């Protein structure tokens, strides 16, 4: 199947063609016609599936075809795309520009950690499409530098992650400022009860789309476990990188402090490495990412949230230096490699402390991951498991529970606003003392009716009317390990 049959206009097809895309991915095949139809959409798709083009292409087409502003009139915001992290926002906006290069639409990205004035200037000049993280968008709303009253299309990208990061009230505040009549697109990798509630309130008879979840079908990613003693992990990583001459290695650590320390140690081993996490300045993060992308940097060490949405074509190696606390994060991590059909390799260094985490992951992905002991790194069979260090120690990496904090930063760029104590309720979002404690109520855009099939042939792709049950709802609250409320990274999408 080619892109030509999806009903996209010539300028979009030309852009897609120049990017070298020959055929649409499954999410694109389904989402593009559904969005072009003008209805709401609930899509279960993870990063790496081509979902960004799946919503961006039809949005660009609709905006370019729907009544444009009269000649000479200032542009106004017609499409709003919300993402959980700065990196993802930047990448989505890059895609908007790339796909829309032959159209006359203007887009901008807005997130925290950088000056607000250039964003205000861009808005003043007139913008059609805004890609934003919720925190900075709220800043603009409070300063009345953005007018959302004429938004025609809203996208919540990686909605599950936005809720995980405590943005529900921020999202509701944004929704309250949008016109009730609009097209809503919600993308989420997982479908927890919170997502279902959000979808119920937000979406009007949504088309339902689910594409193969990577946690069941990551065929393009070769996964491997290397059992190792906890204090031999760094040595093993150096050994693997040097022995295989790996380049563009994305390494995940559990904590920001761990990321810093590992990057430093790799440097001492003669491997160029930088850490990327929420305590780094935006410019340091951007620089590290740029060097990694152009392959002047061999290794990027990242925490989960910072790495969210990093989109590097055909990233060859992902290493889990630590297994993630939340099994779904494993799936997100290995989604960094083997993207859109390319092959990749995901290697996990697993010590005795992590055996339970590994079991949880294997249960989620419904398969055992092959194990390979590396000669010289045979783990001590008598080693005893120790509790896993879930929080960064010392320095700026310290995470503390949000209770009792004065006014923590919401973006994780300097603080730890997103960290939750074990057993805490999911984050309520508004943890910034400067904001009104009373969240605005969302104006739901109609209730969810019986879902519409996204396919022209009326097939529902195995979906039943309950999106949660259908869209692979192996939600975080399943699994009985109670890990749902363990602390998550503090980076906030601002
Ligand atoms: P996404 O899931 O949106 O983050 O996209 C993952 C990657 O797939 C990006 O690098 C895109 O440039 C790439 N991609 C998207 N659509 C296609 C396609 N139809 N063919 C090849 N690559 C694609």
Q: Mind explaining what this structure looks like?
A:
This protein is 32% helix and 13% strand. The protein has 494 residues and is of the alpha/beta class. It has two domains: 3-210, Rossmann fold; 221-390, P-loop containing nucleotide triphosphate hydrolases (Rossmann fold, 3-Layer(aba) Sandwich). The chain has an eight-stranded parallel sheet, sandwiched between helices. Helix 5 links the parallel strand 3 and strand 4. Helix 2 packs parallel to helix 3 (51-65), helix 3 packs across helix 4 (86-99) and helix 15 crosses helix 16. 52% of the residues are buried. Residues 21, 24-25, 28, 47-53, 311, 313, 339-340 line the site of adenosine monophosphate.
A few lines on this structure:
The protein has 494 residues and is an alpha/beta fold.
Q: What is the topological layout?
A:
Elements lengths: L9 H9 L7 H11 L4 E4 L6 H15 L13 E4 L3 H14 L7 E4 L6 H9 L3 E4 L1 H9 L10 E4 L2 H6 L3 H9 L6 E6 L4 H10 L4 E4 L3 H4 L3 E7 L5 H12 L4 E4 L3 H13 L4 E4 L5 H12 L5 E4 L1 H4 L9 E4 L6 H8 L9 E7 L4 H11 L86 E2 L13 H4 L24
Parallel strand pairs: 1-6, 1-7, 2-4, 2-5, 3-4, 5-6, 7-14, 8-13, 9-11, 9-12, 10-11, 12-13
Helix pairs in contact: 2-3, 3-4, 6-8, 15-16
């Amino acid at each position: 199947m080619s892109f030509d049959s999806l009903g996209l206009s010539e300028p979009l097809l030309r852009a897609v063609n120049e990017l070298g895309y020959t055929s649409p991915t499954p999410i694109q095949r389904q989402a593009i016609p559904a969005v072009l139809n003008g209805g709401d959409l609930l899509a279960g798709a993870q990063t790496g599936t081509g979902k960004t083009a799946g919503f961006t292409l039809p949005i660009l087409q609709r905006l370019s075809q729907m009544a444009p502003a009269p000649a000479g009139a200032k542009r106004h915001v017609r499409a709003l795309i919300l993402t959980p992290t700065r990196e993802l926002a930047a990448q989505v906006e890059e895609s908007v520009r790339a796909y829309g290069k032959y159209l006359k639409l203007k887009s901008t990205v807005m997130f925290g950690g950088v000056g607000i004035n250039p964003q205000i200037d861009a808005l003043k000049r007139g913008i059609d499409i805004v890609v934003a993280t919720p925190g900075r968008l709220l800043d603009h709303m409070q300063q009345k530098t953005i007018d959302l009253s004429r938004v025609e299309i809203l996208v919540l990208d990686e909605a599950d992650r936005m809720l995980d990061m405590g943005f529900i009230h921020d999202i509701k505040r944004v929704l309250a400022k949008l016109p009730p009549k609009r097209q809503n697109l919600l993308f989420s990798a997982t479908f927890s009860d919170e997502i279902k509630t959000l979808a119920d309130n937000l979406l009007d008879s949504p088309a339902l789309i689910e594409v193969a979840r990577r946690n069941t079908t990551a065929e393009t990613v070769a996964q491997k476990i290397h059992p190792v003693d906890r204090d031999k992990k760094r040595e093993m990583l150096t050994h693997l990188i040097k022995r295989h001459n790996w380049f563009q290695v994305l390494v995940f650590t559990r904590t920001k402090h761990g990321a810093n320390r590992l990057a430093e140690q790799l440097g001492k081993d003669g491997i160029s490495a930088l850490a990327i996490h929420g305590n780094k300045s935006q410019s340091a993060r951007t620089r590290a990412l740029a060097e990694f992308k152009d392959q002047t940097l061999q290794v990027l060490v990242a925490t989960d949230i910072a790495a969210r949405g990093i989109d590097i074509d055909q990233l060859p190696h992902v290493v889990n230096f630590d297994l993630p606390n939340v099994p779904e994060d494993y799936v997100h991590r290995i989604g960094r490699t083997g993207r859109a059909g390319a092959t990749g390799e995901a290697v996990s260094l697993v010590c005795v402390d992590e055996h339970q985490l590994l079991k949880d992951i294997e249960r989620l992905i419904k398969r055992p991951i092959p194990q390979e002991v590396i000669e010289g790194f045979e783990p001590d069979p008598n080693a005893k498991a120790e509790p896993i260090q879930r929080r960064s120690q010392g320095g700026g990496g310290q995470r503390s529970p949000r209770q009792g904090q004065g006014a923590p930063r919401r973006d994780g760029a300097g603080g730890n606003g997103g960290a939750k104590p074990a057993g805490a309720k999911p984050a309520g979002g508004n943890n910034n003392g400067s904001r009104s404690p009373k969240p605005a109520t969302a104006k739901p855009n109609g209730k969810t009716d019986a879902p519409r099939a996204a396919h022209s042939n009326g097939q529902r792709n195995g979906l039943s009317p309950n999106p949660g049950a259908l869209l692979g709802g192996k939600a975080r609250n399943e699994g009985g390990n109670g890990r749902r409320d363990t602390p998550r990274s503090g980076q906030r999408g601002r």
